[in-house]
Amino acid sequence: MELTPRQLEQFDRDGFLVFPNLFSPSEVAVLRQEVGRLSRVDSEEVVREHTGGVRSIFRVHETDGATRSPAFRALVRTPRVLRPVQQVLRDDAVYVYHTKINTKPAIEGTVWQWHQDYGSWKRDGCPRNTMATFNVMMTDTTEMGGALYIIPGSHKLGRIEPVYDESTSYKFWALPKDRMIEVLRSSPEPIAVTGRAGTGVLFHCETLHASGHNLSAEDRWHIYVSCNTVANRPPVRADARPDWVVSRNTQPLPIEDDRGVLNAA
Ligand SMILES: O=C(O)CCC(=O)C(=O)O
Fold it and tell me: Which domain holds residue 132?
């Protein structure tokens, strides 16, 4: 899939793009079956809510490790995911920084505080903001079900120094509250990105985003494929976060078969 000059302009202006019906119901069915299987894996790559339900499943794109998955490996290599990432990053040598499936279970799935992904990734040692994330919805996503909120154009604010947020079971670097209130008061209204299963969303690493609790009766299953340019890989430090959050595999990813997800079934 090749983005048009208009879509590239839109990405540069808004910091995100939405692609309805990007993956078919049969592809989504294959991916959903994999989420079911991976949710039963017991390993450090599977992060749980305080209440016990699965919050995130990391590192599903490799051929090794407890959470490996041929279908998700194929997904990240499809031209529908990888080509737009290469285009918005203006570089064909791109690798997967990490993958994670956020399952946000019905009633139980909790908030992701306002943050920019590059808040953490600069701390990991990535020198530049040549990074982006491709999200694919594997269930219909509603506002009540904990849709992702995005502030249009917020990537233009540049990186805002984050604070360590320990309010959820997955601790990470989020925007400080006072600064976030200022940003909300001076920015366009956040958009709740809702859509049918199979919808894709591509966003810049400095785009401010968050999501609320899942108050609905349905789980909200999303995969996030976060990518970096090879030229921007961080040094491997002694205090580096684990491989499942900061991938040590920085080989440029090849674009492979667009039918890869179905073939992996
Ligand atoms: O799953 C969500 O709602 C938010 C995930 C997110 O913000 C992230 O992974 O950076």
Answer: 19-253
Atom of ligand 1 nearest to the CA of 222: 1
Q: Which of 60, 100, 102 to mutate to test the pocket of ligand 1 (most atoms within 8 A of CB)?
A: 102
User: Is there a domain that residue 2 lies in?
Assistant: no
Q: Point out the ligand 1 atom lying closest to the alpha carbon of residue 147.
A: 3
pLDDT per position as a tens digit, 126-157: 999 999 999 999 999 999 999 999 999 999 99
Residue pair 25/197 in contact by the 8 Å Cβ criterion: yes
Helix/strand/coil for 220: coil
If DSSP codes are grouped into helix, strand and coil, which group holds residue 18?
A: strand
Residue 168 clears pLDDT 90, i.e. is over it: no
Pocket (CB within 6 angstroms of ligand 1): 102, 112, 117, 148, 209, 211, 222, 224
Q: Does 60 fall in a domain?
A: yes
pLDDT score recorded for residue 28: 98
Instruction: Kindly state whether residue 8 falls inside one of the protein's structural domains.
Output: no
Residue 153 has a pLDDT of 98
Domain count, the chain: 1
CATH number at residue 97: 2.60.120.620
Taken in order 184, 218, 112, 29, is the CA torsion positive or negative?
Answer: negative
Whether 94 is in a domain gets the answer yes
Q: Is the pTM of this model over 0.85?
A: yes
